[in-house]
Amino acid sequence: MPQLNPNPWFFIMLMSWLTFALIVQPKLLSFTPTNPLSNKTLTTTKPPSWTWPWP
Questions:
Q1: Residue 51, CA distances (Å) to 44, 45, 46, 54 in order
Q2: HEC assignment per residue over 14-54
Q3: Using CA atoms, how far apart are residues 8 and 26, in angstroms rounded to an integer?
Q4: φ, ψ (nearest 5 deg) of residue 53
Q5: Could you list the pLDDT tens digit for every one of the 55 residues in the chain?
Q6: For the whole model, what pTM was predicted?
Q7: Which residues contact 4 (CB under 8 A, 6 or more apart)?
Q8: What is the DSSP letter of 21?
Q9: What CA–CA distance (Å, rounded) separates 18 from 23?
């Protein structure tokens, strides 16, 4: 069964992860977000209580 032979596939997986970790990831992390986070405090409002039509 050729699927059980890890010789070519392990090298391909290792090279793809190294490429992602060393080349692609730093380029993606260097982008600045278009909508920066604001320092606004979040206010939580209490929803109105449910009014049941029966007593």
A1: 21, 18, 15, 9
A2: HHHHHHHHHHHHHHHHCCCCCCCCCCCCCCCCCCCCCCCCC
A3: 27
A4: -75, -10
A5: 556 777 888 899 999 999 989 998 888 888 877 777 777 777 778 888 888 777 6
A6: 0.45
A7: none
A8: I
A9: 8
- Tokens encoding 40: 């606004």
pLDDT, residue 14, reads 93
From CA 20, how far away is CA 13, in angstroms rounded? Answer: 11
Please, where are the H alpha helices in 1-55? 7-19, 25-29
Q: How far is CA 39 from CA 9, 11, 36, 42, in A?
A: 47, 46, 10, 9
